[in-house]
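@channel sequence for tomorrow's demo:
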Amino acid sequence: MNNAALIDAARNSKAWPFQEAQRLVRRYPEGKPGGAPVIFETGYGPSGLPHVGTFQEVLRTTFVRRAYEALTGGAPTRLVAFSDDMDGLRKVPDNVPGQAMLAEHLGWPLSRIPDPFGMYESFAHHNNAMLREFLDRFGFDYEFVASSERYNSGAFDEALKQVLRHNQAILDIMLPTLREERRRTYSAVLPISPVSGRVLQVPVEVVDAEEGLIRFVDEDGSTVEQSALGGMAKLQWKVDWAMRWYALGVDYEMSGKDLTDSVTQSGRIVEVLGGRKPEGLIYELFLDEKGEKISKSKGNGLTIEEWLTYGSEDSLGFYIFPNPKSAKSLHPGVIPRAVDDYWQFRAALADQPLDKQLGNPAWHLLRANGNGAAATTPGAGDALPVTFGLLLNLVGVLGAGADHAQVWSYLGNYIHDADPAHHPELDVLVDKALAFNRDFVAPTLRQRAPSDNEAAALRALDAHLAQLDPQTPAEDIQTQVYEIGKVEEFGFENLRDWFKALYETLLGSEQGPRMGSFIALYGIGNSRKLIAEALARQQELRS
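structure tokens (generated this afternoon):
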């Protein structure tokens, strides 16, 4: 593709990643000085395992990163995945072993607590490894940075001295935002006790900013004078965030709505340090199906693993893509639509003009996965031969005992080369459809008996199907289904009522697929058996 054409289209795109990237262009109209890369950052608290919030933040940041690269013709960028593993352990997670040991280490830096899993040198190292494995699984391009390594090695020392130099100015920003009780113990610097090893929440006196010396009262009541450098202290969260922006030169970081005040205060602090507040997006949080905020402690909502049990990685990315400033419900019911919508948008990509491609979520997802060539010159064959919704209907009719091979045997009615090796994406979705049906669909399916007028229409449909060749195309079947629904004597007020009757009597659900497609997939003979069973239920009801 012509790079100039891509840049021009990107400048005019209304897609939110390009709108965000435009802010970075305005930040550096001539590019970052010295040709330095623009730094994107995402943060992670390693007191628990990575979750959907971690995924969406890295993915959305990557969308903006790739949009900026397209907008600038390939300006250099870096994505830093930062782990705040110097943070003190505040409470013992419920879902890990070694509860007693962890309780003994409350308040210790996460990177200095033994690994309860017995696999790594610390609890943080274990969770950091899980984070990296998690990010690698999705193919993200990032650089991992651990807070503990930066503090302990002295890489943050100069930035820490800058905090000490401006300690009072930072307090002037933070103290007015705190309750009176909290003000009495608040300090920008959190020393690590030489006695207990805990991160202390105590007032700190700066003795010598240039030497990094501080004074405080330890837990045992003794007055301690020690360095704040080299891993002997860490910073309070909002100050730490600002220091990190300053030390790493972060240009872009997004965060959730719950951190709105933190962004404001950390932004003021980084300017006091002599740095510049990064650009960023405040995104809305995920909700469960009741509209309540998703909480790890409550266990509501949907985990990454649960989504990937029933849907594809791309479908999760697709669901996350639209307007990040709007809250999204995250529960199993949204998965089937997300899968089909992703493939619909991906199939459309090849024939869209460039400006439409840049607004297509599939374009951004392909680039986020490192497949920039595919996103720039999409192929024409990116489409599923069977929708996920249709797969679910098929599996639902086959019953909870259906297996992978059985589903593929029915797919042979619909696909001329029905071989999993020829359709790997569909093959993955077959297993996910089986799992979704097992856990959510099969327990709810109830095939009701048809009413008299519905039974008459079903008999007419059966008579028509009896005359068809088994290879009749789905569209031809669909046309006849439509025609039967229009017959006045069957008494349907509209076609919607006819299709609802088909779904409820044949499939056992309130919604369903294009019936022509379903009949072609399930087979004309098998579909006639469904009709016969429905008519038999009516007779049983009468008798």
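heads up for whoever presents: Residues 446-542 form a domain with the Arc Repressor Mutant, subunit A fold (CATH 1.10.10.350).
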